[in-house]
Structures are given as structure tokens and as C-alpha cells.
From TrEMBL:
Chain ranges passing through the membrane: 80-98, 105-124, 130-150, 162-181, 219-238, 245-262, 268-287
A Pfam family it matches: HTTM
Membrane topology type: Multi-pass membrane protein
Lineage: Bacteria, Pseudomonadati, Bacteroidota, Cytophagia, Cytophagales
PANTHER family attached to this UniProt entry: HTTM DOMAIN-CONTAINING PROTEIN, SPORULATION-DELAYING PROTEIN SDPB
Name of the featured protein: HTTM-like domain-containing protein
Length: 312
């Protein structure tokens, strides 16, 4: 698949649909995530919320402090009003981004507002927030509105190498993310012994399914640890292949589905599932062929089974 990417880039062919799917998915996911945090907006983002602004700024780099400086104007008696206005603006830009209206402008606005809120609650942010920032940034720089958007209604759907170029950059970005995530896990013994999997799944903040019945099955936790390392470290090599890549992508999707289910992180898991599918949509064709082969095999088995007659 990597050779195919280079060939299509040189020849000027490629599809704009994966990037359009990425735009819609990021906008929809971010919109639902933002609405889910709306009841806790004041406690999370107000200057006197769970974490005060002064404490939050201690952990920020100097280059990112200016995002929190922009929020100083909302301190005071009208803080809730300004929080509501900026939050409503964020939701509006995400809605317009999903529809593909004034795409470049609203993607830039939503990316900026997301960073503003992200840095304002740095200590309560996690992986989903950072991958959302990555997705919104991709909507700023990539041609994500050429199809499936209101901006493209007066234009003919086009297929250009520049769209495939940005899709390839997204693919390479994910390869780097998974490699370094797996590489960092190789240090120490926790992931090799399976202790890391056990501890993560039994943390009070993450546990959503009671797995105490499996506490004595040490080999299963060790196997899960090894499988996680294999999937992440081998992602950049295997994902480009046709058949093996489809298997690898299926494993990665299963990994994030497990994170969403067993660690009570549905937004993180679903976001990474969407990013992977949008980055490597060619593997969906392989899945479709597998399903068709299974259906044909089941039909063939059903027809070849000996029929039994009821005697009277």
C-alpha cells in the first residue's frame, strides 16, 4: 500500500472522500463530546472551578500560556456569560464544519477554540482532547471540503494528488503515534508481564466492567500485554500490506473498542477508531470481500448438507 501511495501521488490520482469522511467524523465526534461536558462546564473551565487558573498554568509551557491569558477577560461577575458565549461559538463552528460550510474558516475557528478550552483545563485533559486537536488541525490544512459539503455543491467532485498527499501524511502520523506509544511501553516489565493491563483495567477511575473473576488468569493478562506491544510496534510496517494490513487494522480497532468498553473511555476509543478508518479506508474493501466469502461459504455449506425427510 505504501508503494501505491507513492504511485498515486506521482501520477496525480487519489480520492477526496476519505478526507471528507474525516471532516464529518471529527466535527460530529467533537460536537457530541462538547455537549457531554456541558453540565460540568463551569466546574471544569471557570477560574474558580475544580482546578484554579493559577494552578493550571504551573504545568503549561511558556509558548502555550497565551491561550490561558486570553481567558483572563472572562474572570469576574460575567464569567458564566462569556463561558456560555464562547462555548456556543465552539458548538456552532463544529456544526458548520460538519456541514462543510465556510470550511476553512470554521475549521480554523473550531481548532482555535478547542485549544483555548484545552489549555484552560490542561490538568483534566487526556488523549481524546489531543487527538481532537490533531483532527481539527487536519481540517484546517487539508482539502476536506471537496466532496460531501455545502461548499462543494457548485463544484464537480474532484480527485487530486494533494488530497491523497494529506491522507498519506495522516497515515504516517498514525504510524509514528503507534510506534512511539509501543516503544515507550517496552521500558520496564509491566507490559511484558501483563501487570500494566491488569492495573489499568482495575483503576477506580477507569473500571467499567468487573473482571475480578479473571484475576488468577495470569497468562491472559500477559498475552494482552504482548498483543498490545505487537499491534503498536508493528503498525507502521504491517498496515501498508493488503491482507496483513487488514488484519492489523482489525486488531487496532479491537484494541480501541476494548479501551472504550473496559476503561470507560468511549470518546477516546471511538475517536481513534474513526481516525484509523479514515486513514486506511482501502482495508474496508478487504473486509467486504471477507464477508462475501463467508456468506458464500455458508450458502454452499447449507446447500450441500443432506436433507432429512420426515417419514409418516
Amino acid at each position: 500500500m505504501f508503494v501505491t501511495f507513492i504511485t498515486r501521488l506521482i501520477s496525480g490520482t487519489g480520492s477526496a472522500y476519505p478526507l471528507a469522511a474525516l471532516r464529518i467524523w471529527i466535527a460530529l465526534h467533537s460536537l457530541v463530546h462538547a455537549l457531554s461536558t456541558l453540565p460540568d462546564m463551569v466546574n471544569l473551565y471557570a477560574s474558580q472551578g475544580y482546578i484554579r487558573t493559577e494552578i493550571n498554568e504551573i504545568f503549561l509551557w511558556d509558548i502555550t500560556l497565551w491561550f490561558t491569558k486570553l481567558r483572563y477577560f472572562i474572570n469576574g461577575p460575567d464569567e458564566l456569560l462569556y463561558l456560555s458565549i464562547t462555548w456556543a461559538g465552539y458548538l456552532l463552528t463544529l456544526l458548520l464544519l460538519g456541514l462543510g460550510k465556510w470550511t476553512r474558516l470554521v475549521s480554523l475557528a473550531s481548532w482555535f477554540l478547542h485549544l483555548l478550552w484545552l489549555k484552560s483545563a490542561y490538568l483534566v485533559s487526556y488523549g481524546s482532547d489531543y487527538f481532537t486537536a490533531l483532527g481539527l488541525f487536519w481540517c484546517v490544512v487539508a482539502p476536506v471540503s471537496r466532496v460531501w459539503s455545502l461548499d462543494s455543491r457548485r463544484k464537480q467532485p474532484s480527485s487530486h494528488s494533494v488530497a491523497y498527499y494529506y491522507q498519506g501524511l495522516l497515515q504516517i502520523t498514525l504510524c509514528c503515534v503507534y510506534f512511539f506509544a509501543g516503544f515507550s511501553k517496552t521500558f520496564g516489565q509491566d507490559w511484558w508481564t501483563g501487570d500494566a493491563v491488569w492495573l489499568v483495567l482495575h483503576k477506580a477511575a477507569f473500571q467499567s466492567v468487573n473482571l475480578d473473576a479473571f484475576r488468577h488468569v495470569d497468562w491472559a493478562w500477559q498475552l494482552l500485554g504482548w498483543l498490545t506491544l505487537l499491534l503498536e510496534l508493528g503498525y507502521g510496517l504491517a498496515i501498508w500490506q493488503k491482507q496483513i494490513g487488514a488484519v492489523w487494522l482489525l486488531g487496532i480497532l479491537g484494541l480501541h473498542a476494548g479501551i472504550a468498553l473496559f476503561m470507560n473511555l468511549p470518546f477516546f476509543g471511538s475517536l481513534l477508531i474513526g481516525l484509523n478508518v479514515c486513514a486506511f479506508p482501502n482495508h474496508l474493501v478487504v473486509y467486504k470481500r471477507w464477508i462475501n466469502d463467508m456468506i458464500l461459504a455458508l450458502n454452499f455449506t447449507h446447500k450441500t448438507l443432506p436433507s432429512t425427510t420426515v417419514s409418516h
